[in-house]
Amino acid sequence: MEIEERTKLFGLLGKNISYSFSRGYFAEKFDLLELTDHKYVNFDLDSIQELTALIQKNKGQLVGFNITIPYKEEVIPFLDKIDKKAAKIGAVNTVRISKKGKLKGFNTDYYGFKESLKPLLKEKHKKALILGTGGASKAVAFALKRMNFEVVFVSRQGTGGDVITYQQLDETVIKEHLLIVNCTPLGTHPNVDNCPAIPYEYIGESHILYDLIYNPAKTLFLQKGEEKGAVIKNGLEMLELQAEKAWQIWQKS
């Protein structure tokens, strides 16, 4: 793909990302702001090792990029600097490139999640289950801990401590943890018949089920929660908020 020399280039780094929310969001944003010299593209890489060549190829034009699955952690060794919050989280979803070509990593996922969740919370929401242990789950955990939640991760291979298995999710655990956040890709279009294997029969009206997935708008995970009277929310607002935060970061380049 040829990019005009004067174009300011932005993009999304990931693998199998033709579905990209970000590309459509920023294309619309650039249109609205009449930024005709700005372009946002998908950088679909088979390996993070391809990043160095990508940066070199677009040197002087690439201002910054977002990062999605599976590179939010793998990108860190390629950075020259990392923001304090991103370092604590251990995952990066936004990179800004300075005029000198230095890469600095940030995490705006935690901000998007926190701000989109806050209006739903009540005093009783003190404990959370996070389904999945990838880069996005780290940002979610960081946000929740800052909001004084007790957090337990759920994965197929529990490691003890604050990481348990799906088999350990019994009635007591579900009823104690009134916020359940899906950070796995289960249920993403086109595999809409999938959902995390939790005992939905113990979900009740006091629960909040939050899914980072936005396509479909109502995953099977959310449908099952809604059937039990739970408050549900998908990841669209989180994505919009983190994208706006990323835009603010890039404007400081």
From TrEMBL:
EC number annotated for this UniProt entry: 1.1.1.25
The pathway is: Metabolic intermediate biosynthesis; chorismate biosynthesis; chorismate from D-erythrose 4-phosphate and phosphoenolpyruvate: step 4/7
Domain (Shikimate dehydrogenase substrate binding N-terminal): give its ranges.
Answer: 12-95
List residues traversing the bilayer. none
InterPro entries the UniProt entry points to:
Aminoacid_DH-like_N_sf, NAD(P)-bd_dom_sf, Shikimate_DH-bd_N, Shikimate_DH_fam
Keyword annotations: Amino-acid biosynthesis, Aromatic amino acid biosynthesis, Kinase, Oxidoreductase, Transferase
| GO molecular function terms listed in the Swiss-Prot or TrEMBL record | kinase activity; shikimate 3-dehydrogenase (NADP+) activity
Name recorded for this polypeptide: Shikimate dehydrogenase
